[in-house]
Amino acid sequence: MANHSGDDDSASRASSNYSTTRTDPKKLFVQQVLEKAKKAELVQKQIQESLKKLHSAKKLLPVTGLGATPLMVDNLGRVLDESGNLIKEKPVIQSSLKVNRNLETERLKKQSSSSKQTTVIKRPESSQYIDPSLKGIKKRKRLEFRNVEPGSYIKQERKLQRHLENKSLGINKRAALEHKKRILELENQRLNAIFKRQVAQEKSVPIAQISDDINDINPNLIPLREPTVLNRDSWDDDEPPLEWWDRGIIILKSGEDPFKLADAKEHEYLTDVDPDDLVINEKRLGIYIEHPCKIDGKKRKIAPTPVMLTKEERKKLRRRKRQERLKRIQDKIRIGLIPPPPPKLKLSNLMNVLKNQSAADPSKVEMQVRQQMEERLSMHEKRNEERKLTPEQRSRKHAKKWQSIKNGHVEGALFTITSLADPKLLFKVDVNAQQLHLTGCCLVALEGPCIVIVEGSKLAIRRYVKLLMRRIKWDEINMENGATGANDVADTTTSVPVLACKQIWIGNLKRRFFPDWSVSFVNCDDEITEFLRPFKATHYFEMVQKYRDPLDDL
Question: 415: Cβ–Cβ under 8 A, 6 or more apart, which residues?
Answer without folding.
Answer: 451, 452, 454, 468, 501, 502, 503, 504
